[in-house]
Amino acid sequence: MMPSTLKYRIEMTPFGFSSEFNYLQLIMSTSFQTQTDEDSCSYQETGQVVNSDIEFVRLQINDNSLYCRYIKKGVIDNRIQSISNSIFSIDSSQQTSTNISRQVGINIPYYRYNALIDPDYSFISDLLPANDKDGSICDPLRKRGLTKLQILGIIFGGVGLIIVLIIIYFGYKMITDWNFKIKFWRKVDRFIKMKKLNKL
C-alpha cells in the first residue's frame, strides 16, 4: 500500500438474496474538487494495475490526483474469493475543470453471513499536469497553448529537419559542383593533417 493511503473497510451483514446465483452490487461514488475557480484543468482515467488483481480510477485536477484502487478479491463468509468491479462511464455533466467524479460498482457474490471488501484511496502529486494530457477539461478562460510534450516534439522535429536539409544540400553540391567537391575534400584533408600534428 502506498504512503498517504486511506484504507476503506466495508463489511456487509447478511442480505436477502433470492438465489445463490445472484450478486449484490455496491456502488461507490468518488469525487474530487478544488476551490480554485480559474485556470484549472481536470482529467480522469481508469485501468488495470500491471501484474495484479487491482483496477484503478485516477481523478486529477491540475497536478494533484486522487488515486482509487479496487482489488478484485474480498472476504466472503470468512473465505477469500474473487469479486469483480464495474467502472461506469464518465458522466460529462458531472465533470468540470474544478470538479470530477466517477462511480464504481463492486459486484459481491452470494454470501450467507458476511462480506468484507477494502478499497483504498491515495492523494498523490503528478509530474504531468492535467492540462498536458489528452482529453482533459480546462477552464474556458484558460489560455491553453502547446503542451510540454508538443513543444519538445516540435524542437526535436525541427532539429531533425535541419540536419536532413544540410545532408541533402551537401550531397547535391558534391554531385553537381566539381569545384565545391575539390574544396570540400581539401578542407577534410587539411583537418585530418591538423589532427595528426596536434597528436605529435
From TrEMBL:
Alphabetized InterPro entries for the sequence: ComC_SSD
TM helices/strands, residue ranges: 151-172
Protein name according to UniProt: ComC supersandwich domain-containing protein
Pfam families hit by this protein: ComC_SSD (PF22933)
Alphabetical UniProt keywords: Membrane, Transmembrane, Transmembrane helix
Domain spans labelled ComC supersandwich: 5-124
